[in-house]
Amino acid sequence: MGVMPDTRRGVLYGVTAYTMWGLFPLYWPLLKPSGAVEILAHRMVWSLVVVVAVLAVRRHWSWIHTMTRRQFLLLALAALTVSVNWGVYIYAVNAGHVVESALGYFINPLVSVLFGVLVFRERLRRWQWIAVGLGALAVLILTLDYGRLPWIALVLAFSFGTYGLIKKAAGVGSAESLTIETLVLLVPALGYLLVLQADGTGTFANHGVGHALLLVTAGLITAVPLMLFTAAALRVPLTVIGLLQYIAPVLQFLCGVLIAHETMPASRWAGFVVVWLALSVFTWDSIRAARTSRQERTAALETV
């Protein structure tokens, strides 16, 4: 009886995390006239404040003594990678490319599969290859539609995929790793903000208390969904997390089309339809493989 409530709580945490990520396109425009780099710097600084506060409440500092030099270097690399992802995403939303940013997170699962082949030498099942092929076809269709490579989507997908790889290799918890990542970026971020304020181009102290509070909140909305995601991952199967991850790009896409009113010509719709087809194939195959594996384990236990 105790397992089901815990699982439901995990699903709730996951849905909340991905919903927050999906609604980010409504938040970043509120921070104008701050530029993408200034917003990114505030996000780094205030995220550190939030996670340090969380760790202080939990009185959880013992991990500092057990962290290895390799883990620290990996997290420093993760910090650089995620700063690229965050910066490009903020730029994309505030420059009116919400739909293209959603595309990046739609194709991210396919990029992760590709990394599995290239980095870990994993062997893909036939339907996984079909999904990856459809994803490549979608990128080609959208390249023809945009008249250029959908670079925003590709940078977001590959940077987040790389970030996930590095975090997996580091093997450090969410709050702890985010503390190191933001700490690594603190000096350049704080230095940049101080320079902006010194030359009068910074917006933190020049656009009222409301604007300053919104910039501070960037730390909260960065840390909270990450910690909710970690809590969800500990309570529900990866197949469920895999399904929940589509909540964010779906909401981002809807924000771009219904709220930002970005243009969606027929050729762009065609590209997205192929992406969704690729994800449907990928998801179906993942669920089928997980069910087969579970049945094989059950059969093996019954024969023991």
Radius of gyration: 21 Å
Distance between the termini: 27 Å
**So what's the overall shape?**
globular
State the share of residues found in helices, binned by percent: over 70%
As residue ranges, the low-confidence spans are none
What is the string of helix and strand elements? HHHHHHHHHHHHH
- Number of discrete helical segments: 13
Which band does the percent of strand residues land in? under 5%
Mean pLDDT: 87
Domain tally:
1
SS elements, strand count: 0
Largest sheet: none
Structural class by SSE content: mainly alpha
Task: Describe what you observe in this structure.
The protein has 304 residues and is mostly helical. It has one domain (3-303). The protein contains 13 helices and no strands. The protein has helices spanning 3-22, 24-27, 36-58, 63-66, 69-94, 98-120, 126-146, 151-170, 174-198, 208-233, 238-244, 247-259, 266-303. α6 runs antiparallel to α12 (247-259) and α6 (98-120) packs across α13 (266-303).
